[in-house]
Amino acid sequence: MNLTEGPAPHHVADGAARSPHARAAHASPGRPAPPESWEGSGEGPGGAEEGRAQALPPDHTQAILETTKEVGAVLKASGCPFALVGSVAAYAHGIPVRLQHDTDFAVRREDAELVTRSLRERGIRIVEPPEDWLVKARAGGEEIDLIFALAGRPVTTELLARAPTMPVDSVHMPVLAPTDIMVSRLLALSEHHCDFGALLPVARGLRERVDWARVRQETADAPMAAAFLYLLELLDVLPRGDAAA
Questions:
Q1: How far, rounded to the nearest angstrom, does the alpha carbon of residue 156 sit from its chain's CA centroid?
Q2: Where is this region: Disordered (predicted)?
Q3: Which of 94, 100, 208, 231 is 20 to 30 Å from 243 at the Cα level?
């Protein structure tokens, strides 16, 4: 997750280990997958320069969207409330983020057993991590996080009820509301994980749809959040000083 919604960092994508067929499936639209003989090696067209380009994290956007739709369909059929969160939620709200890591869903802790059983019945592999605030799963080579707490705050019925139902690559599902996206992302910032560069385009893209007064109130005790909100004022994304309240 990353744009995680929890304190844990994103997982490294496993694109380098994919088969030729999978590489073709994960190629960027309009651009064919590189030949197996020089993928990530610096050989072939472009030499060392091409090798450096191939070393960049692969774009898994369409593959992650397919996994998101599959899991979303299972969660809807389970009858349990849920919401799409993280980078894919920002993508659903129209933010042009590049999906590379995983897809994240917020679910209530009390629904964990039913949700994981529903996913297993669909053939999705469940992994029990050491963390007690999420369950991990895997489908189609992509990772899935089922999150019970966003930035240390339990996922509640009220939080999920605020999530609007939106199309995610043609499949409708609940997506975390813009204000809740910003609150959870800001509270996840810490001295060890403080990437303002990744969060800035999200804030800019969502600014007209965010209740910034509530964001300030709910993040008042978080110094990294205060620093980011001040940066938004300096960049004229938000009005300065008392006018922002």
A1: 19
A2: 1-54
A3: 94
